[in-house]
Design a protein that fits this description.
The chain has 321 residues and is α+β, with helices and mostly antiparallel strands. It contains one helix and 16 strands. Strands 1, 2, 5, 7, 8, 10, 11 and 12 form an eight-stranded mixed sheet that branches. It has a four-stranded antiparallel sheet with strand order 14-13-15-16. The chain is elongated, with a radius of gyration of 31 Å. The mean pLDDT is 83.
Length: 321
């Protein structure tokens, strides 16, 4: 039996239905793709923010723990500067205490960079032992400080150093001796370095009047400043300045830093209360609590970057139990 009509194509209605089904399926696929893409961006942004927060808190915690270390001396109160007055830069404030900071900066500049307004700054001071440098078993109080054989290669001529002992005494001086593998002593006379050393009475006497013995520690003093400023990408970043050197950008996209100081008001080695820099006596601070807010470089679906705040509390080893 033959049909009177043969179908040779699709009707307009069938074509419209097919197109509608195809568009619906494609929209679903695109929606799934976009959701996966957003999820990937979120995971990437979260990983970067978390990594930046961890790196920043670890760097700060390490330096906070070591603050106010002066060898066998309990603090900087017994250390005398033998440097000529008006040394400038960090040297003038070096013995002002192992810890300092400013709360909610209004206008401040560190190393030529403008600190982000409303953020806090942190200053840490102390001394660290030079690698591979040792003093001889006897330490005369003359103009020469005897070094263990081979130590001269790691000593800098005209460098700033500290001698401390377990009597609580110490002296900051500038090495006026030579440096190099053959150097077997350091000098602390007036010399030709800048700023140079003062003269106290008979040649070779220390400002503290101390005669250093076998318990002497040789340290390099430092002042480290942490602050937030605009980074290379134009966004706030965590910076670190050591002494008066050029500040170094450590972690980008750190948009806020707030600091509380744990004060040991009772003198028992444990924290009694936390307050900002204006509400504590820095000489009694035993711990530092830092809140860092980090944001992602990428924008999320809502048009804003991902933000996370990381809080860490670190004891100052040389001040706490």
């Amino acid at each position: 039996m033959k049909f009177p009509f043969k179908q040779t194509g699709l009707t307009i209605i069938e074509l419209m239905i097919a197109v509608a089904l195809g568009v619906t399926l494609l929209a679903g696929v695109l929606q799934i793709f976009d959701a996966n893409n957003q999820s990937g961006r979120l995971q990437t942004a979260f990983a970067r923010v978390q990594e930046s927060g961890r790196i920043a808190t670890d760097m700060l915690a390490r330096d906070i723990r070591n603050a106010d270390y002066w060898g066998c001396a309990p603090d900087a109160s017994g250390i005398i500067s033998n440097l000529n007055p008006g040394a400038g830069n960090y040297l003038d404030s070096l013995l002002g205490g192992g810890l300092d900071g400013e709360n909610d900066v209004v206008t401040e500049e560190v190393g030529g960079l403008d600190v982000i307004a409303g953020t806090d700054t942190l200053i840490l001071r102390g001394g660290y032992s030079p690698d591979d440098v040792g003093l001889d078993n006897h330490q005369p109080h003359g103009t020469a400080i005897h070094l263990r054989a081979g130590s001269g290669a790691f000593v800098e001529s005209c460098g700033i150093y500290v001698l401390t002992n377990c009597n609580g005494s110490g002296d900051i001086f500038q090495n006026t001796g030579a440096s190099g593998a053959s150097a077997d002593n350091m000098g602390h006379n007036s010399g030709s370095c800048t700023p140079g050393n003062q003269s106290y009475g008979a040649a070779g006497n220390w400002g503290s009047g101390e005669v250093y013995g076998e318990d002497t520690s040789l340290l390099i003093p430092y002042e480290t400043t942490y602050f937030l400023a605009a980074g290379v990408n134009g966004q706030p970043s965590l910076f670190k300045q050591i002494n008066s050197n050029t500040p170094q950008e450590l972690v980008p996209n750190v948009v806020d830093m707030q600091i509380l100081y744990g004060e040991d008001s009772s003198g028992n080695g444990s924290v009694d209360n936390f307050d900002d820099a204006s509400g504590v006596t820095m000489g009694r601070v035993a711990a530092v609590r830092i809140e860092l807010t980090v944001q992602s470089q990428e924008l999320m679906a809502n048009g804003n970057p991902l933000r996370r705040t990381y809080t860490s509390t670190t004891n100052i080893r040389n001040r706490s139990l």
